[in-house]
Design brief:
- This protein is an alpha/beta fold.
- It has a single domain, classed as TIM Barrel, CATH 3.20.20.70.
- It is built from 5 helices and 10 strands, in the order βαβαβαββββαβββα.
- The strands form 2 sheets. It has an 8-stranded parallel β-barrel with strand order 1-2-3-4-5-6-7-8. The chain has a two-stranded antiparallel sheet with strand order 9-10.
- Helix 2 links the parallel strand 2 and strand 3.
- The longest helix has 10 residues.
- The protein is globular, with a radius of gyration of 15 Å.
């Protein structure tokens, strides 16, 4: 099972999330409450030792995405308008989409399937009908389910979708800040599925 913890902003949360497959940092998305600066990313990434670092962005600005590409993250996760610049990236990329506008990009490191929003951002915590999960083939990139996934329903998500993994953000927050305790509880709960790289 692949686990991505997204929207990390504090050293404590990063240390707790480092057992996940991917640790996500939001950049170039100023409307997001989880957006961090390039300077913050460079400091925080030094605390990541086991996970792959992911910069998550919904930027519509070509120049911003090129700058993000220069930061040497392991993956850049593209939302909304940023997806049209994927061909410019030297960094491996992931694609975020919704169940009613699924993008099967064979070149993506993984695909995030999130709930529907108009602003192109994830991390809303909005639950969607996981029974609408698209049929996938083994040759496809891994698909991670996002959108309302939490400690309480992660087992249901995996049972209904048979997805490769999950992508969590808001459900691991207390007062809008990532909780190291909730992150650790989530990672302990999903240990039974085994870790997939």
């Amino acid at each position: 099972m692949i686990v991505k913890i997204c929207g990390l902003q504090t050293p404590e949360a990063i240390l707790a999330a480092d057992a996940a497959n991917y640790t996500g940092f939001v950049m170039g998305s100023p409307r997001s409450s989880r957006n961090i600066s390039e300077g913050d990313f460079n400091k925080l990434r030094k605390l990541v030792h086991h996970s792959k670092t992911v910069i998550v962005t919904a930027t519509a600005e070509r120049e911003t995405l090129i700058q993000i590409d220069s930061l040497n993250a392991d993956v850049i996760q593209l939302h909304g308008e940023s997806r049209k610049y994927k061909h410019l990236l030297s960094t491996p990329y992931a694609i975020a989409c919704t169940n009613n506008s699924f993008i099967n990009d064979q070149s993506a490191e993984y695909i995030v399937l999130d709930s529907v929003r108009n602003d192109g951002y994830g991390g809303s915590g909005i639950v969607w009908n996981w029974k609408d999960f698209p049929e996938i083939q083994e040759s496809d990139p891994p698909i991670l389910v996002a959108g309302g996934v939490s400690l309480d329903n992660v087992d249901e998500v995996m049972a209904v979708t048979q997805a490769s993994g999950v992508d969590l953000s808001s459900s691991l927050e207390i007062g809008g800040v990532k909780s190291p305790i909730l992150i650790k509880k989530l990672l302990q709960k999903v240990e039974k599925y085994g870790k997939q790289k």
